[in-house]
Design goal:
With 388 residues, the protein is of the alpha/beta class. It has two domains: 7-147, Rossmann fold; 156-266 and 291-386, Orthogonal Bundle (Rna Polymerase Sigma Factor, Chain: A). It has 16 helices and eleven strands. The strands form two sheets. It has a seven-stranded parallel beta sheet, with helices on both faces. A four-stranded mixed beta sheet has the order 9-8-10-11, covered by helices on one side. β10 (248-254) and β11 form a beta hairpin. α6 (128-144) runs parallel beside α11, α14 runs antiparallel to α15 (347-358) and α15 (347-358) crosses α16. It is globular. Bound molecules: nicotinamide-adenine-dinucleotide and magnesium ion. Magnesium ion binds at residues 153-155, 223.
């Protein structure tokens, strides 16, 4: 890395779990990294605090009703303030931006990510939903504009690290999963789980949406799809292995049977930092594994009958076209409904499945097709929830 020139980072979703940890990484290396753009959905106060502390060139508040509030609070600062979803697509293209870290949640990541790719900006990708929804379009655009995607998701970073220095084909990816808080629950126990129970993840402290996805294992299903696009492998080459301790972050098996894995304490700042510093590794003060303290490392088969969302992700890849976009949209609807106690835990998989069955299959989608498919699938999923 050119040490004279600081990398200017645009963080989409700087107020969230990944966003705030990205700012911690920047703070560890003030000589190397600079927060150039910060964006948030509606957490205006935190965005203002961050802007005053990190002094970016621009901020975006996606929720336009909060624009005046943010603009007034930053009136004395040399910071441009924008609002709205379209502004996200514009700031990612700002000339000085060196890398766009996508830490916003859900389908909302798709348009700004495509916009960044079209401006030739490298992507540090946390927003997995973008690849789930439109992996085909996004990877095609990356080839066209010669834009790299550096994975932030811990499993995909582990796979990426296991592939460093390798030219030989992948035989199999071993995608590890913690199994979430309900790993040992019986189906009858799962029937009655509450949002509060699901929001307590055993190993990771994450945003609410991904925490619920982890409890239903939809997150692992999405990670299968994400791995399929990032590493160009067939679904049958991706084996999900439940590893409750979250120390082995994932692994790659090669043609000679050798397996390379990446291990570490569960801390997202490690993959975030690598995505920003690649191909170099930088020093860090983050926790290390204490090998004497390490209890058993265990590995189990995932229960696909209990965690049907994981099975559905494999089905969505098999179907191709708009199937994963439908699954993602329906999941966003049921995930929120579950958090608001409008949808029981086990109904989430049923509604996603029913939405997938009801919608027409479509191939070769462009951005407008994805936007239309997402909107329609949300309506369909919502109508199933209202019938509960
Ligand atoms: P979070 O809910 O903590 O934060 C989300 C951020 O996105 C916030 O800054 C919010 O203001 C912004 N945002 C939300 N909706 C938006 C919208 N419609 N328009 C613009 N901005 C919006 O989420 P998180 O846990 O940080 O996760 C972010 C992404 O990273 C997700 O795609 C998630 O799957 C992925 N990820 C997270 C983790 C983790 O440890 N948290 C790990 C791997 C991958
Ligand atoms: Mg992950």
């Amino acid at each position: 890395m050119d040490i004279k020139k600081k990398k200017k980072i645009c963080i989409l979703g700087s107020t969230g779990s990944i966003g705030t940890q990205t700012l911690q990484v920047i703070e560890e290396h003030p000589d190397l990294f600079e927060a150039y753009v910060l964006t948030a959905h509606s957490q205006a106060d935190l965005l203002i605090t961050q802007a005053k502390k990190y002094r970016p060139s621009a901020v975006v508040i996606a929720d336009e009703s909060r624009y005046e509030y943010v603009r007034e609070a930053l009136a004395d600062e040399p910071i441009q303030v924008y609002a709205g979803a379209d502004a996200l697509c514009q700031v990612v293209q700002m000339e000085p931006v060196d890398v766009v870290l996508t830490a916003l949640v859900g389908f909302a990541g798709l348009r700004p990510t495509l916009s960044a790719i079209e401006a030739g900006k490298p992507i540090a990708l946390a927003n997995k939903e973008t690849l789930v929804v439109a992996g085909e379009l996004v990877t095609r655009k990356c080839m066209e504009y010669r834009v790299p995607i550096l994975p932030v998701d811990s499993e995909h970073s582990a796979i990426f690290q296991s592939l460093m220095g390798e030219q030989s084909p992948i035989e199999k990816i071993i995608l590890t999963a913690s199994g979430g808080p309900f790993r040992t629950f019986t189906p009858s126990q799962l029937k009655d789980v509450t949002p509060a129970m699901a929001l307590k993840h055993p190993n990771w402290d994450m945003g609410a949406k991904i925490t619920i996805d982890s409890a239903s294992m939809m997150n692992k299903g999405f990670e299968v799809i994400e791995a399929r696009w990032l590493f160009d492998v067939e679904p049958a080459q991706i084996q999900v292995v439940v590893h409750p301790q979250s120390i082995v972050h994932s692994a790659v098996q090669f043609q000679d049977g050798a397996v390379k894995a990446q291990l570490g304490a569960p801390d997202m700042r490690v993959p975030i930092q690598l995505a920003l510093s690649y191909p170099e590794r930088l020093e860090s003060t983050f926790p290390r594994i204490d090998w004497w303290d390490m209890k058993d490392l265990t590995f189990e088969r995932p229960d696909l009958n209990k965690f049907r969302c994981l099975q559905m992700a494999y089905e969505a890849i098999r179907m191709g076209g708009n199937a994963a976009c439908i699954v993602n949209a329906a999941n966003e609807v049921v995930n929120l409904a579950f958090r608001q106690e409008r949808c029981p835990f086990l109904e989430m998989a049923n509604i996603i499945e029913q939405t997938l069955q009801k919608m027409a299959h479509q191939e070769n989608l462009n951005l407008d097709d994805y936007l239309a498919c997402d909107a329609e699938a949300r309506q369909v999923a919502d109508s199933f929830i209202r019938r509960l």
